Amino acid sequence: MKKSVFLGALTVAGLAAGAAAAGTLDDVKARGTLNCGVTTGLVGFAAPDANGVWEGFDVGVCRAVAAAVLGDSTAVEFVPTTGKTRFTALASGEIDMLARNTTWTFSRDVDLKFEFTGVNYYDGQGFMVPSSLGVSSAKELDGATVCIQTGTTTELNLADYFRSNNMNYEPVPIETNAEAQQQYLAGACDVYTTDRSGLAATRAAFENPGDHTILPETISKEPLGPLVRHGDHEWGDVVRWTLNALIVAEEMGVTSANISDMASTAGDNPEINRLLGTEGNLGEMLGLEADWAVKAISAGGNYGELFERHIGESTPIGLARGLNAQWKDGGLLYAPPFR
User: Fold this and answer.
1) Collapsing DSSP states into helix, strand and coil, what is residue 218?
2) Which of 73, 281, 294, 296 has the CB geometry, 3.0–4.6 Å to 68, for a possible disulfide?
3) Which of 151, 131, 135, 256 is nearest to 194 (CA)?
4) Residues with Cβ < 8 Å from 174, sequence gap 6 or more?
5) Distance between CA atoms of residues 243 and 255, nearest Å
6) In this predicted model, what pLDDT tens digit does every residue of 231-281 receive, in sequence order?
7) CA-CA distance, 183 to 126, in Å (whole number)?
8) pTM for this entry
9) Cβ contacts of residue 255 below 8 Å, gap of 6+?
10) Buried b (16+ CB within 10 A) or exposed e, 273-306
11) In Å, how far from its chain's centre is CA 143?
């Protein structure tokens, strides 16, 4: 009897989990729009342009998912979130996914019950100071006032770094990057600390970027990536493999310029054929159309195209690929096989 009750409970739990997993994908399809949580504004990653249209590297991931699921990269409702509100927005169902410079950590994965679907930027925390301060190393920051976004791993890393180096600091809590810029430029803090990519994006928005120095130290590992709710496995697969499609497309030379021709007929590379839906049934496995990846890649290009357009060396942000280069080029970027 006890065994029957136990097995019955497992069955109910499994059915509930299955329903939850299918729920978000079905909801997005029925709604006709993807609700994507982003930052409140970080140039290069996620920020509205002069016409109110959201642009950026993280925005590109949201648009790729919308294209894969709905066939329309513009069918996205962007929901600005802060370091404090982002997880509540995702857990409550206000947003379907979060693509907001968010670090994959043990506690967020296990304790907060979120599922990270990959890494779209390998980063690390750094420090920016006015060049006039004459500081050349983070080890010289003892007694500094530091602008720090609350509710972030940055806040915890800062405390660890200063404690391990027997230094003191005075935190200046801020909630958004815009507030950080304002406080930092007004002299309310000596230092601004966040992910190095965020520092580069912030500095690029200054009137005189050359007046500010990003110090050489990288004090943490910050694997940034999109995430969904725990147990939402079917939806998690869609987000995960959309990101992987962007990554593997760059590796295999599939771009926004040549994808239409490559998708029109099957070529000699079986993996490209499976990716583009001219062979196999990967789309069916995801609950999507056969050309889901074609739509995702066409939305804004492959990973490399998105990187170079929004944050690469030719942009004011000027980020080198570094760890975010393809694995064949000495980086960490690596998508599992499409088979």
Assistant:
1) coil
2) 296
3) 151
4) 147, 148, 149, 150, 180, 183
5) 14
6) 999 999 999 999 999 999 999 999 999 999 999 887 899 999 999 999 999
7) 18
8) 0.89
9) 249, 297, 301, 302, 305
10) bbbbbbbbebbeebbbebbbbbbbbbbbbbbbbb
11) 33
